[in-house]
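Hey Z.,

So I finally got round to the flavin mononucleotide thing we talked about over coffee. Here's the setup:
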Amino acid sequence: MTKPVLYFIACAAGPTQHVDDGLRQALARGWDTCLVLTPSAARWWEPRAGELEKLTGHPVRSQYKLPTESDALPKATAMLVAPMSCTTLNKWGAGISDTLAIGLPSEAVHMGVPVTAMPYFNQAQGAQPAVARSVAALREQGVVVLDGPDGYEAHPPKQGNPRAYPWHLALDAVEASAAPAA
Ligand SMILES: Cc1cc2nc3c(=O)[nH]c(=O)nc-3n(C[C@H](O)[C@H](O)[C@H](O)COP(=O)(O)O)c2cc1C
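And the result:
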């Protein structure tokens, strides 16, 4: 039986330094896991991108393909944007999809693919009025946004602990959203 496919989409936010931890958890849960990074996050992993490709068995995507290129990844069963940076949240909420990392989930959620997003940013970033508006805009479209006690709550500035990012809560929510209706 073929495995369900998870697009695991990570932004340039603290926990992406440890995205291999999140990938291992997704793989252990039986997902065929494809990693998509924002261009900024891809810079963080540039010297070690091969490790992530070996882990997932897929190319790591971070740029839109050329019109002449065919799709590099299998069709997604579900998508997870984690960690979602403040920048990606606000661009997505405003309908701007200038990165593949936003383009994929922003369309997929309107094509019946379950999309979950869990942020990671500090309270000073989260205090910008655009943030609450963007979360509301994503929820209005059907994205499951885990920005509270069931997911990630913004930390005080300079007090983040990216190692402790709760990947398991994001994956629990993905599984709940992707489960076939009873
Ligand atoms: C070392 C470093 C850590 C960062 N951590 C975060 C973070 O945890 N959350 C966040 O929203 N932005 C963080 N930023 C800022 C984002 O990387 C920046 O806003 C970037 O434009 C996000 O782009 P992206 O969403 O396309 O990845 C960090 C930047 C640097 C250089």
